[in-house]
Amino acid sequence: MRKSIIAVIAAFSLAALPAHADRGGYYRGGGHYGGHYQNHGGHHGGDSVWAGLAIVGAIAGLAILADQARPRYAVPYEAQPVYPPQPTYVEPPPGPAPVPAPAASATWYYCPSAQAYYPYLRDCPGGWQVVPANPY
Question: 65 pairs with which residues across the strands?
Answer without folding.
Answer: none
